[in-house]
Amino acid sequence: MNVVIKNDAAAVTEFACGLVRERLAERRYRVLGLPTGGTPVLLYQALIASYRRGEVDFAEVVSFNLDEYLGLEPTHPQSYRRFMEENLFSHVNIRPENVHFLSGLPEDIAWHCADYEREIVEAGGIDLQILGIGRDGHIGFNEPTSSLRSRTHETALTKQTIEDNRRFFERAEDVPRWALTMGVETIMDSREILLLATGRSKADAVKAMVEGPVAAICPASILQFHPAVTVVCDEAAAAKLDHDEFYRWTGDNQHRMLEFLAEQRRRVAGN
Ligand code: F6R
After folding, report:
1. Rounded distance, CA 23 to CA 192, Å?
2. How far is the CA of 133 from the centre of ligand 1 (A)?
3. Which is the closest atom of ligand 1 to the Cα of 131?
4. Active site includes 164?
5. What integer is the mean pLDDT of 140-144?
């Protein structure tokens, strides 16, 4: 895992936006996996600003969102479909036909989930999957103890997730208890993963994900098995990491290895 620690949420956003921009500038990156929630809002704002400055183009981008609440129609103010429309899609030039979403009202859940998997494969797979992380270590809505081999599926939300989502709803009883989510293995099939974590409330989950054992009790810990994951967090979310000095050193000194190697080559050639 490449762990990047930044001072605050603004610096996390700048780093993440730069990475997304760079990848989209490479033609072979086209398919994005996208999260909702509080964490990516700043990133989406930064991407919109970049788009307006002509630095990023969504004309060829294909998107797959991670999850959707069961029971909400796409136009419901708290549906993730609506969230994406308001926070990103309506502000950039992504084509509506390239936007993919799980339905909150599927007629046949198993068929719908299998169809979502088929659509991802047909699009060529997810090139860059952007993730947030739940306080309980969930990614997508893969809650603690859910299978680390899961594909897109229906799930019950934990009490903690329901409480965390309460802030978006007027009444506690309106918060959905079930959702559809890409599975852990669906996420792991992505070519590259960028996970954002900000705020003190994420410190335990970040610690378990990066330095804990790989276990279904913290679904995000499976990312340790992925060859191309960047975790970018602010100081508060990184507060419980034991090896933070090492992550900071490697982050700040990536260029040094190449300089060191060039120096050694010159030395050997000079002998
Ligand atoms: C949302 C999603 C969730 C969130 C997580 C963190 O699409 O997949 O895993 O990323 O619950 O949510 P926030 O960012 O609101 O703390």
Report:
1. 10
2. 6
3. 10
4. no
5. 97
Give me the percent of the chain exceeding a pLDDT of 70.
Answer: 100
Judge whether 100 counts as a catalytic residue.
no
The two tokens of residue 226 are 């992925």
Query: What is the C-alpha separation between 269 and 271, in angstroms, rounded?
Result: 6
Residue closest by Cα to atom 5 of ligand 1: 134
Q: How many whole angstroms from 253 Cα to the centroid of ligand 1?
A: 31
Tell me which of 85, 86, 122, 136 is the catalytic residue.
136
Strands 153-156 and 192-197: unpaired
Other beta carbons within 10 angstroms of residue 51's beta carbon come to 18
**Could you tell me which of 213, 205, 219, 195 has the C-alpha nearest to residue 146?**
219
Global pTM value = 0.95
- Which domains does the chain carry? 2-240 (3.40.50.1360)
What's the mean pLDDT in 169-194?
96
pLDDT, one tens digit per residue, over 94-139 is 999 999 999 999 999 999 999 999 999 999 999 999 999 999 999 9
Mutate which of 78, 102, 146, 164 for ligand 1? The one with the most ligand atoms within 8 Å of its CB, which is: 164
What's the mean per-residue pLDDT of the chain?
96
Phi, psi of 243, deg, nearest 5:
-105, 30
Distance 263 CA to ligand 1 centre (A): 45
Q: In which band, very low, low, confident or very high, does the pLDDT at 256 lie, cut at 50, 70 and 90?
A: confident
List, in sequence order, the alpha helices (H) in 123-199.
Answer: 159-165, 184-188
SS3 131: strand
Catalytic residue (one of 68, 127, 138, 153) = 138
Residue list, ligand 1 pocket, CB within 6 Å: 35-39, 66-67, 132-134, 138-140
Share of the chain above pLDDT 90, in %: 92
